[in-house]
Amino acid sequence: MSIYFDNAATTVCGETAAQAVYTAMKEVYGNPSSVHRLGQKAAVVLDRARSDTAKVLNCEAKEVYFTSGGTEADNWAIRSAARTGALKGKKHIISSKFEHHAVLHTLNALEKEGFEVTLLDVYSDGLVRVDDLADAVREDTALVTIMYANNEIGTVQPVAEIGALCRLKGVIFHTDAVQAVGHIPVDVKRDNVDMLSLSAHKFHGPKGVGALYVRQRTPLNIFIEGGAQERGKRGGTENVPGVSGLAAALTEANERLEENAAKTIAIRERLVNALLEIPKSRYNGDPTKRLPGIINFCFEGIEGESLLLKLDAAGICASSGSACTSGSLDPSHVLLAIGLSHEVAHGSLRLSFNERNSVEEADFIIKTLPTIIEKLRSMSPVWEKIQKGGK
Ligand SMILES: *Cc1c(COP(=O)(O)O)cnc(C)c1O
Q: Matching CATH topology for 3-10+257-387 and 15-255?
């Protein structure tokens, strides 16, 4: 038995998407650049995937560029906007302290190339403040990149307001919407977005495929030199199976957005209410400005990694904010950004779920988790200290 509550890391590929991938591989195997009938059949499938994706985002098909995933889309958008800015002497970029590493590490690289980066504070509610952004924008700001929804704590940023401010100031606005697309309504026009990243495997599509939306007239650099694919900006034979799967999964997710969210929120509220009953527990991030399916809790006196191992032994797949697995003992930069101490941030648990999870699974977690936490605490010197200190 395994209970999968790690959907922010990746999701299972859905039936519709898997079928679309299979059909594209076995039947529509021509190269979209070929003039013959099999090539043209593939070109039609590719065009269809692009227009289906555009429909969901409320943009034109020609504003959609397919990529190898969210990481590539983030790299491409940020590097392109930085280059464009530099040509006009603008070498300042604004982002936030709790972005995904695909964004933060790209910004680090640009800093080494002479760009100046301002990272906005994230408040204890897991949100940035539009006023802070207004204060940070300068004459030489080339780009604002702020994520739509956070992948560790699930909070949803005031994206439309951020976008409106950027438009007013004439600054390019990119948003990493990898956790938002397919889960909450995203509309590039309403949200005043110039560039937006998404990734198929976060909404029941295949892995290794994503897209970058680029608003018309927003300059976009060539990312991969080669053929004329992706409007001459990203060479290489298109991943027709991947983009077919992406479009199928996205269309399905969009059709069922409200229904899926309602189901997911019911699971979320059940979990939250139960986990708040655990002594010295803390629910991270604003309780309402959030995605349906990501919650993050800290349990004092607990080590996140040990908790994950015990949960795994009980058949529950979850995640912790701590980055021990990636070779670092530092707690998550996201939890530190919202003001948690190292000690508290170490005891974090992320549960991420969706409409494919059941209330029964949630109840199993509700039944299992308190016992594991009690056991871990009974062995923890830190917990002993916390209790003696009466904190
Ligand atoms: C998963 C994720 C990414 C990376 O997407 P990939 O397709 O795995 O490269 C980027 N940003 C956020 C917020 C994510 O959750």
A: no
Is 69 a pocket residue for ligand 1 (Cβ < 6 Å)? yes
pLDDT digits (tens, 9 = 90+) for 111-138: 999 999 999 999 999 999 999 999 999 9
What pTM did the predictor assign?
0.97
Separation CA 11–CA 201 (nearest Å): 6
User: Would the CB of 147 count as within 6 Å of ligand 1?
Assistant: yes
Residue 331: the pLDDT is 86
| 171 pLDDT higher than 60 | yes
Which atom of ligand 1 is nearest to 199's Cα? 7
pLDDT tens for 218-276 read: 999 999 999 999 999 999 999 999 999 999 999 999 999 999 999 999 999 999 999 99
Give the CATH number of domain 3-10+257-387.
Answer: 3.90.1150.10
Bridge partners of residue 116, in order along the sequence: 92
Across the strands, what pairs with 214?
195
The Cα diameter of the chain in Å comes to 77
Annotated catalytic residue 324: yes
**CB-hemisphere CA count at 13 Å for 361?**
23
Domain ranges of the chain: 3-10+257-387, 15-255
99, 106, 199, 203, best to mutate for ligand 1 pocket (most atoms within 8 Å of CB): 199
Ligand 1: which atom is nearest the Cα of residue 147?
13
For the domain made up of 15-255, the CATH class stated in words is alpha beta
d(CA 5, CA 243): 26
Is the pLDDT higher at 323 or at 275?
275
70 lines ligand 1 (CB under 6 A): yes
Helix 359-378 and helix 257-275, axial crossing angle in degrees, nearest 10: 30
Calculate mean pLDDT across residues 306-331: 81
